[in-house]
Specification:
This protein is of the alpha/beta class and about 350 residues long. It folds into 2 domains: about 200 residues, Alanine racemase (TIM Barrel, Alpha-Beta Barrel); about 130 residues, Beta Barrel (Lyase, Ornithine Decarboxylase, Chain A, domain 1), CATH 2.40.37.10. The longest helix has 19 residues. It is elongated, with a radius of gyration of 23 Å. The relative contact order is 0.16.
C-alpha cells in the first residue's frame, strides 16, 4: 500500500489501546493505579501517555527523575507524581515547589527531600535502591515529622509466578508497614508492578504501579487481554531488480540465489532497529512478511521482496500488535535474547516521529 505521507521512521501510538490496558489493570487490582511514564513513557511519549492513562483510570503517575516529573507539570498535568531516583547533591527544590512526591530510602535523601511529600522505600530483596531492613526503624523514626504519604518497595521476580522470592518480599514489606504503624504513621502501601497486578491481586495493597502492561506488552506467562500500544513503521524509498549472485550491504553477508526485487527502507540502528537483528529480521511489506537481508545499517535496511511489485511509498511495518501478521516488539526481543521493554523504549529517538491515535 503506497502512503501519500510515507514516513521515514514513525512510532504510531494508540491511546485507546492504552486506556483499555489501564482500565483492565485497575479492574484486576481493585486499588489505585500509578501509571509509570518514565523514559518518556517507555518511548511512547510521557505527556500524551500520562493524559490517556489518567483518562483510563489511573490516579497517580510515576517518573524516574525529578526533571521527568517537572516535564509533566510544565505540560499542565496536576495529578500526583512520584519521582524516585536522583543524584547526590541534586537540587530538588523545583520538584518540591511543583508538588512532586519524592522517594526516600536514607537519612541523606530525607534531608534532600525536605518539604516534599515523601514515600519511604524499604528494600525487601531486590537489593537495588531502598532502605536496608536494619536501618528501617531509624529512617521511619526520623521521618515522623515529615509528610509521609506512602511506603513502598519493588518486586524482583513477579514475572515468574510462584517464585519463592515473592513471598519473602511480601513478608518483609508487611513487617516494614508494621514498623511504620508503630511509629504512628498511616501511609499508603504500594508494592505490585505490572506482573504482580496480573497474578497477585493480594499484593495490590492500596496502589499498584503499572508500567509495561499499560503499554500492552505482557510480562507474565499466561495470555492477557492487553493491546500493544506502539506500531513502528517506515516506507520503501527505492526498489530495484537485482540479479542472482549479487550481494547486499556491508560485508556482503547475503547473496541473492535468484533474480529478485530489493526494497530499501530508511531505518537502521540509529532509529531503534538493532544491528543484532541482521539476518534474522522480517518486516511486513504490502501485507506480506519479507526478510531483511544483509546487515542492518545505521540509516537503512534492505528487504528481499522476491517477485512482488514494490514501489517507493509502500508501507513497511517493522513491529506492531501483530494483527496484520507483522512482527511484534516481543518477537524482536525474543530474537535478541532481551525484553520487549528495551525494544519500545529504544524508540525514544530524535529521528523517530510519533503520531497519536485516539487523542481526547
Amino acid at each position: 500500500m503506497s502512503d501519500q505521507n510515507a514516513p521515514r521512521a514513525e512510532a504510531v501510538v494508540d491511546l485507546d489501546a492504552l486506556r483499555h490496558n489501564v482500565a483492565l489493570l485497575a479492574g484486576r487490582a481493585h486499588a489505585q493505579v500509578m501509571a509509570v511514564v518514565k523514559a518518556d513513557g517507555y518511548g511512547h511519549g510521557a505527556v500524551p501517555v500520562a493524559r490517556a492513562a489518567l483518562q483510563g483510570g489511573a490516579t497517580w503517575l510515576g517518573s524516574c527523575s525529578a526533571p521527568e516529573a517537572l516535564h509533566l507539570r510544565e505540560n499542565g498535568i496536576e495529578a500526583p507524581i512520584l519521582a524516585w531516583l536522583y543524584t547526590a547533591g541534586e537540587d530538588l527544590s523545583a520538584a518540591v515547589a511543583a508538588g512532586v512526591d519524592l522517594s526516600v530510602a536514607s537519612l541523606d535523601e530525607l534531608k534532600a527531600a525536605e518539604g516534599a511529600r515523601i514515600h519511604l522505600k524499604i528494600d525487601t530483596g531486590l537489593n537495588r535502591n531502598g532502605c536496608p531492613p536494619e536501618l528501617w526503624r531509624e529512617l521511619v523514626n526520623a521521618a515522623k515529622d515529615h509528610n509521609v504519604a506512602a511506603i513502598w518497595s519493588h518486586l524482583a521476580s513477579a514475572d515468574e509466578p510462584g517464585d519463592p522470592s515473592i513471598e519473602r518480599q511480601r513478608a518483609r514489606f508487611d513487617w516494614a508497614y508494621e514498623v511504620a504503624q508503630e511509629a504512628g504513621l498511616t501511609p499508603l502501601r504500594h508494592l505490585a508492578n505490572s506482573a504482580a497486578t496480573l497474578t497477585r491481586p493480594d499484593l495490590s495493597y492500596d496502589m499498584v504501579r503499572v508500567g509495561i502492561a499499560m503499554y500492552g506488552l505482557n510480562p507474565v506467562p499466561q495470555p492477557e487481554d492487553l493491546r500493544p500500544v506502539m506500531t513502528f513503521r517506515s516506507s520503501v524509498v527505492h526498489a530495484k531488480r537485482t540479479p542472482a549472485g549479487e550481494s547486499v550491504s556491508y560485508g556482503q553477508t547475503w547473496t541473492a540465489e535468484r533474480d529478485t526485487t530489493l526494497a530499501l527502507v530508511p531505518v537502521g540502528y540509529a532509529d531503534g532497529v538493532p544491528r543484532g537483528l541482521s539476518g534474522r529480521l522480517e518486516v511486513l511489506v504490502n501485507g506480506m512478511r519479507k526478510p531483511v537481508v544483509g546487515r542492518v545499517c545505521m540509516d537503512q535496511i534492505v528487504v528481499d521482496c522476491g517477485d512482488d511489485d514494490v514501489k517507493p511509498g509502500d508501507e513497511v511495518l517493522l513491529f506492531g500488535p501483530g494483527d496484520r501478521g507483522e512482527p511484534t516488539a516481543t518477537e524482536w526481543a525474543d530474537l535478541l535474547g532481551t525484553i520487549d521493554y528495551e525494544i519500545v523504549t529504544n524508540m525514544y529517538r530524535p529521528r523517530v516521529r510519533r503520531r497519536y491515535l485516539g487523542v481526547k
